[in-house]
Amino acid sequence: MPILNTAYAQLDLKRYPEQHNSPLQAFDAADEYLLKHLSELSLSGHSRCLILNDNFGALAISLAEHMQVHSSGDSFLAHQALRNNLDHNQRPADAVQILQSEQAFQGPYDCVLIRVPKTLALLEEQLIRLQSHISDRTIIVAAGMIKHLPRSAGDLLERYIGPVQASLAEKKARLLFVTPTNIAQAQSPYPSSYELDKPKISLRNHAGVFCREALDIGTRFLLPHLPSGLGHAHVADLGCGNGVMAIVCALENPEAQLLLVDESYMAVQSAQENWQQALGQRPVTIYAGDGLGAVQPQTLDVVLCNPPFHQQQVVGDFLARRMLQQSHRALKPGGQLWVVGNRHLGYHITLKRMFSKVEQVAANAKFVIFKASK
């Protein structure tokens, strides 16, 4: 794998989860450009630096020996990559202070480095929270590959922080230099909410949640087909988002025991609030994690899943296939995986390699639902 070689460090970085024989690497030209620019500034070793949305730890680990570094983002997988890469590069586990997206920033900061995320609502929420942790002397630079850097990202930076000056392009990457001005503290528009008709429930969605403004069409197609009559079954909602599938399943199966997991901290926060709103104090387990990796083998009766088709800005089915494998491992013999996906993704081929029986439950022009039995 390529080595990240900058003025700050030489690092051997790995993506997480690791994908064998993949050409993808754990840093890009935007990371290199950002670190190159920062090295040309006169920041002291006492400087306090906040890094937002560091995908695999390239920025945080590079700077960890040169200043006090806090790393914040909405991805458990990104934070796990950071931890793994600290260890892999013989850095102390506490060299970087990791902040989950629901945890407050700990400013004031001398420097803020921002990798512009795929979800601009997340960026907006981060900028609103950032306002009270910077001064007019704070160095603020956002970065991204040009193809993933929409004009609206610069608009958000100007609205909440101050004027933006774009750099020249370098290796198809661009920096946005932001000059903090005395902008009044904004009120966050998040979480937002929408209503579900059947069953009649309201769903809160924090800024990082996929399909925040309305129920995504894949889940909408799956909901009427969710299994009932499950008794005391142990059921997992894998990649739970705002928790809607688990909540609907729980309402249909009052004795079932539910586990909800997602890699987005804001999804987990949304799911916790929505569960309590819909089901009160009914026991449940909800956490941010690496899918079903922490679940004991052969302990689940049913897994419900609407897999993602991207990791950050990279589109692909690697994470989805990994979630199907985790489901097979976690299910008891005879257990069932209920999965919905776009027709063209061909999940039935992967499922038939792993499960003893795969049935098509329903299909429409865009989606197909499978029930795979172990």
Describe this structure in words.
The chain is α/β, with parallel strands linked by helices. It folds into two domains: 4-178, Rossmann fold, CATH 3.40.50.150; 192-373, 3-Layer(aba) Sandwich (Rossmann fold), CATH 3.40.50. It has ten helices and 20 strands. The protein has helices at residues 29-39, 58-63, 76-88, 120-130, 151-160, 217-222, 244-252, 265-279, 318-330, 347-354, and strands at 4-5, 10-11, 48-52, 68-73, 97-100, 111-115, 139-145, 164-166, 173-178, 192-196, 201-205, 234-238, 257-262, 285-288, 300-305, 310-311, 314-315, 331-342, 357-363, 367-373. The strands form five sheets. Strands 5-4-3-6-7-9-8 form a seven-stranded mixed beta sheet, with helices on both faces. A seven-stranded mixed beta sheet has the order 14-13-12-15-18-20-19, sandwiched between helices. A two-stranded antiparallel sheet has the order 1-2. Strand 16 (310-311) and strand 17 form a beta hairpin. Helix 4 runs parallel beside helix 5, helix 7 (244-252) runs parallel beside helix 8 and helix 9 (318-330) packs parallel to helix 10. The longest helix has 15 residues, at 265-279.
